[in-house]
Each structure stands twice: as structure tokens, then as C-alpha cells.
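Job type: complex structure
Entries:
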Amino acid sequence: MESISKAAFRRLPRYHQILNAFEGLGREYISSRELSEILEINETLVRKDMADLKIRGKQNQGYSIAALRLRIEDFLGLQEITEALVVGAGHLGTALATYAGFEHYGLKIVGVFDSDPEKIGKRQGAHDVLPVSRLASVIQRKQIRMIILTVPREVAQGIIDTAVGAGVLAVWNFTPCELNVPPGVKVRNEQIVGGFMALSYYLKNVSGGGED
Amino acid sequence: MESISKAAFRRLPRYHQILNAFEGLGREYISSRELSEILEINETLVRKDMADLKIRGKQNQGYSIAALRLRIEDFLGLQEITEALVVGAGHLGTALATYAGFEHYGLKIVGVFDSDPEKIGKRQGAHDVLPVSRLASVIQRKQIRMIILTVPREVAQGIIDTAVGAGVLAVWNFTPCELNVPPGVKVRNEQIVGGFMALSYYLKNVSGGGED
């Protein structure tokens, strides 16, 4: 397995986002200085990240945006299709299940599940909502390796046990629960409110217009 | 302004989430070892973070969960109410505008805006969707300092210019745009797809059941 430092790994999504934004503006090259200013990190750190990715810049031009973007996508496996199921058809589950942008990253939602009889059978994006009782059989039949969890906390662990038992290896967890999974299963805890915390800290300390 | 290292600051939301989860299970104390195992970081780093927060553990018991949680909330300003407006009443905007969990963090959504005539006037959670044309006047009248942006990328910068002109100091950006803001305005780029990237990398490299 190719590997880079944890901190560099954490920066890859932001690099990717910035490259996309610049590409959308018609730019072909980006400099380490530009990347460092946008990311608010040291330019030498950007250069080290690029070296880790085995990406070289051109003198006076910087890095090829397309080449760097493709390199990150290849490194992260985004050029392969990952089929995933959304469990929990509330507002957030609906937002995730119907978000068209995921396809640019190779993420394909192939089913949506809920336990609410009022939601089951309703259309959601490209899918009819299925009952959670069918989750395990769909995972097995379609050989699904990833689920996206947006259910109430009381039922989260039970659903994970079912999904992992059926063969799921990766869990994108939008619940506030600390899930127990066996070794070999990866959980990503998505804590949306964390972003607010950073802004709250800023607002608390900004009085007078200072910056953090 | 109180300050801690950037890395420690980034960990505060996860600490807070873990403390909430343990509190929900009826636990009163948590050890640096437990925190280090859940966070997958070195135990000495946990101890350093606690020292930075001026939190002391008890021998053989660990840290008081309630005291540590309150300390983090105080540090981040979560005990004060932050009023915010959601701009963009799509699925994600609706999920954010109606998410009851935010109130535990002091975040209060006090209005929802959209430019789509079909959405304007519709009820969304506790609010009727207002036209974006009224955004600046509402920001000024209610002295709003934060907006949550979930609009299409084409209109994102224009809305930010309006909001910042009206007095907004903090932007929680769920669009994929790199927003330009004047000094003194803080933007938090929320890149939900970043979580998927980490899982994609795991799945790409897991063949055979290995772990990263």
C-alpha cells in the first residue's frame, strides 16, 4: 500500500477541492505558494506533500492541476466505483442519497433504507426506500462494502452489526455514536458540528475585529 | 484569547463527541488511555491536550467527563447562543436547518433563505423560507454574525459578498467554492466528501482484509 503522513493524508481532500475550483476557473497550473496561502500552511509543507505524492512542479509554473488532481484521485481510489447504501432516509440521508456531486468521486449510492413505514416505498432520488429488514440480503447480493449511516442513535449499533455481518468493510458514520466494529472494518465518524465549533471559537474571540 | 495547538484544537470536536457518548452510557470518568484508543493517537498526546485545557485527571479514575465536556464547551464558546441563517433550502440546507442537535452546541438557526419561488414561503422546520433579496436586511436587523451556505456554486460568492457587507463575520461553507472574504471574516469549508475519500482509500487497499 502506498502511504503518506497522516497530516498529508488529511490535506488531500482540500487539495482536491482547491484543484477542482481552480480548474473550474480555467487555470492549468497552481503554485506551492498559492496552495500554501489557501490552506494556511507553510509552503515547505506543501512541497513535501507533493514530493510524497511523487508530483513534480515546473519551474515558474507550478504543478499541473490536472495531473495533480488525477494523482490524488488515483492514490485515494476515486477512479474506481464504490457502491454504497444509505441507511436512514431523513433529511440528511436524503441529501446524501440525492447529491449528484458524489459521482465525481466514484461514489455511487445504490440503495436507501429506512424502518419508517411512511418512508418505505417512497421514491428518493433514483431509489425506492427499502425496509431495513432487507439490508443484509441486499449487501450480500450486491456485494456492498460500504454503508452510510444516518439513523437515530438508538438503532445505530444494531444496524452496523447487521451490515458488518453481511460483509460491509467501511462505515461512513453520520450519527453521534461511537460504533463498535471488529478489526478490519473502518469507521469514519463524520461530525458536521465540528465545523461550527471552530466558527463559534472564532466568534467568541473576535470581539474588536481580531483574527485567530 | 486562550489558545492551544492547531492539532489539539482540531481534536476538540471529537473529544466532545466521545464525552457525550460516554456520558450517555452513564459513565462519569474517562481515562487518557480510553481517549487515546478511541482517537487512535498517542496517550501522551491526550495528556498534553488535557494539560493545555488545564484539565487534571484523578489518579486511577481519569478525567471527569462532565468537567471536561464543560471545559471544552466554555473554551469554544458553545455555551453562548450563536444565531445563524441558512442560505439555500435544498436537501442539505433543510437537513441543517431542521437538525435539532445543534441546540446542544448553542447554534440556533433563526432563518432560512432561497431564491427559488417554489421554495419561498414554504415552511421549513420553525421557519418560512425567505427570499435571498431580504438576506442583507435580516442580517442587519437581527445582527447576525454567521451564515450557513448551501447554495449552487454559481451564486455562492455573490451571496457571501452581500452577507459580509451586511455584517457577517463567520461563514460555514458547504459549497465546493473557494470564497473570497475580507480580513476579519472566517470561512470554514465543510467538505463532506473528504470523509468518503478516507474510506475509499481504505477499501482500495484492504484487499485481503488488511488494515491501514
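Summary: Strands of chain B lie at 29-30, 63-64, 82-87, 107-114, 123-124, 127-131, 146-149, 170-173, 186-189. The longest strand of chain B covers residues 107-114.
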